[in-house]
Structure formats: C-alpha cells, structure tokens
What we know:
Elements (H helix, E strand, L loop, with lengths): L8 E5 L3 H13 L3 E6 L3 H11 L4 E2 L12 E4 L6 H10 L3 E4 L7 H14 L3 E3 L7 H11 L6 E9 L19 H4 L1 H12 L4 E9 L11 E8 L3 E8 L8 E6 L2 E6 L9 E6 L2 E5 L6 H13 L9 H20 L6
Parallel strand pairs: 1-2, 1-4, 2-3, 4-5, 5-6, 7-10
Antiparallel strand pairs: 7-11, 8-9, 9-10, 11-12, 12-13, 13-14
Amino acid sequence: MTEVAEPLRWAVVGASWIAADRVIPALRATGQSVAALVSSDAAHGAAYAAEHGIPRVVSSIDALADGEVDAVYIGTSNERHRAASEAAAARGLHVLLEKPMADRLDDARAIVAACAAAGVVLAVDHHLVASAAFRIVRELVADGAIGELRAVRVEHAKLLPEFLRTWRIGDGPGAGVVADLTPHDASLVDALLAPRRPLEVSALAVRQGGWGGGAPDAVASVVRYEGEVLVTLHDGFTTPHAASGVEVLGTEGSIWAEELLAQDPVARVVLRDAAGEREVPVAGVDLYEATVGAFVDAVRGRGRAFVDGGAGLRAAELAFAVQRSIEEGQVIRP
C-alpha cells in the first residue's frame, strides 16, 4: 500500500452516469482530487473526461502510473467489479465500490478477500446508510425509544425514470429490481439489525411495467432474522406517486422515516409512542459527500466507512438470497 496524499488522489473507474451526477461532485465537494479516469472506451472516455474536468484518461487500472492515485471509485458494470477491485487492491489502492458489489456472490467474497489481503480500505457505496435521518433512526432504536424490536418494513417502490429505462429493464447483467434496489434495502436492514443474521428469506417477483426484457421489475420479500425480528422489503420500478421509507416497529412504539430511500437529503423522521406522534428534526447532509468523507477518514485511520467490506458482503448475501428464492420458488436459509 502506497503513502496517501492530502487530499486523496482518485481514479474514477467507469465513465458512468452515477459517477458524473453524484460521485465526482461529492469528491470535489470534500476536497478530493480527481486525477484520472479509467475507461475501456477511448472516445467516450476522452469526451467524458473533458466534460468533467478530469486531466488524464487510461484504459485500465494497470495503466495508472505508480503513485499517481491513492484510491479508486469503481462504477463500472456489475460483472466488472471483481476484476477492477482485484486490480486496484494489487496496486495498493483503496477501493470505494458502487453497489451491488458484484453480479455473483463468489465475486463479492473474492473482492473482500483481495482487499483484506492487500491491506487496503474497501467500502461499498450504499449511500443511504450515510443519511442523517437514518443515523437518527439508529440512535432512537439503540436508545430504546421504541422498546424491543419486532419488525422492519422497507418500502422502496417508485416509477423508474425514463432515462434509466435501459439495461435495468433488460435481460443482461445487473438487470431487474433485485440487483438495483434490494442491495440498498439490505444495507439499511443490516445496519439496523447487526449482529443479528437472517435465518430465512422468501420472495416473490413479477413484471408489471410492460416494457421489454425479462427481469422482474417488482418484488416483495420477507426475512426472518435472529431474535424473531420480521423484515419486509418491497422494491419496484412501476409505482408513481408512492412514498418510499423505512418503518421500524417495537414493543413501545414505531419510527417512520419517510423518503429515506431518496438520493437527496429530504427524509423526515416521525416517532410514535404512548405520548403521541412527533417529528424528529433532521439536518440536511449530502449522502454522497458523507460517504466519501467517512471513506477518507477510514483511509487515514480516523474512523470507519459507513458500509465496509464486511457489511457490504452481508448486504450482498441477503440480496442474492432474495434472488435465489425468486428463482427456486422456495424459502432460502442463508
């Protein structure tokens, strides 16, 4: 592992929409240096780099010069995550990996192993866990505000924006609502319930949107966790005008975090108990900036990433269990 600069120097791996829309702005807002773009498409990479002010374009992580960067953000297609992560780890580069970790569970496990062996920081960009509203939910639960946990409900069904109706609604790698949305749910549930582990997973999926392709665009899942906590997940691309959110139910009350699954910091938190209903104030914090900041702190030994490799792998395991239940038509015991 190389000595890291102040600020960190980054290579963005993959000329993706999410990198341009969210991650590159977050890197710059937190004082980081975007030093290079890794793109296998030379023409697209050159145009993307020019548009976003990235000074250098290379075709692979191996083409980066020694000491040129300290960390990589990997936002390539899911099936390329393992190769990119292993290449970065072999160069001693810290890895911020877009979700889902990989398109196969074995690949997700291999990514964790490679980064651990190289001694580099691995985090997964489950940005929702970085939400200030979610931090409040976790604090309320930890403080016993709703008593003993009984259930968690995640409502993550919206209408997929037209400009995103490409590979997500097709048949290729990463297609379907499970690969796209369920890992987000799983990361939130893991952060709430760990060290409890899921014991049983059952899921049903349908296609409701009427667009081409065969991957499911709506799924409902039920998970039984240790301690007899029930978790329900509803993910979908097909329902306009719906409120997303996370509800946590306990023996003494409940918490509803409305719009917690939005990319922007618009969530509101409502606590209900014997005293009535009241809204808990939430500070607006950019989720991606918070994710990057925590990652940088972890690299510098000042803290931990919001979703490190271990937590990311647990989220992946749950999402893959949901997928298996759909495919096999039976309860899965992870």
